[in-house]
Design a protein that fits this description.
- By secondary structure, the chain is mainly α.
- The protein is built from 5 helices and 3 strands.
- The protein has a 3-stranded antiparallel sheet with strand order 1-2-3, sandwiched between helices.
- A hairpin with a 2-residue loop joins strand 2 and strand 3.
- The termini are far apart.
Length: 150
């Protein structure tokens, strides 16, 4: 039987604007990184706790990221992989050394994120956070918690 707390965590994440599933017009506010910077600062800057490889482009990012993660893990590094979109389950987006994040970890991380997200959004200085920004912050927190090298 599925954990209702996990479903509640997913419902919270998806309660924000999700440009992956909605065809909404985007403007300069949509791309303002200051709200994300504010959220990550409130969370203790977890994005700075590990080295990262940022892959950009239009084709092959997921495959490239998976190969890099595999090489790093095989070389003895503890490796986190954040990818999108997922095919079936949100947990596919977050892996440490190839293992999916647990539902329990998502529940705990959303509980940690929620008050900080609400604080950032209540000010709305730079617009409202999006689903993708929440997922990115969740990934940074998860990888910091797991002590990944990359």
């Amino acid at each position: 039987m599925p954990d209702s707390r996990y479903q509640q965590a997913l419902d919270y994440i998806y309660s924000f604007v999700d440009y992956e599933t909605m065809h909404l017009p985007r403007d300069a506010v949509s791309y303002d990184l200051r709200r994300m910077e504010e959220l990550l600062t409130r969370l203790g800057k977890p994005q700075l706790r590990a080295k990262s490889v940022h892959i950009a482009g239009t084709k092959g990012k997921g495959s490239t990221a998976a190969m890099i993660a595999s090489v790093l893990s095989t070389s003895g590094y503890k490796t986190g992989l954040f990818s999108s979109p997922h095919l079936i389950d949100l947990r596919e987006r977050f892996r440490v050394d190839g293992e999916l994040i647990s539902e329990a970890d998502i529940i705990a991380l959303v509980a940690k994120l929620k008050p900080e997200v609400e604080a950032v959004n209540s000010k709305a200085t730079y617009g409202q956070l999006t689903t993708f920004e929440l997922l990115t912050a969740l990934g940074f927190l998860y990888f910091a918690q797991k002590g990944v090298d990359f």
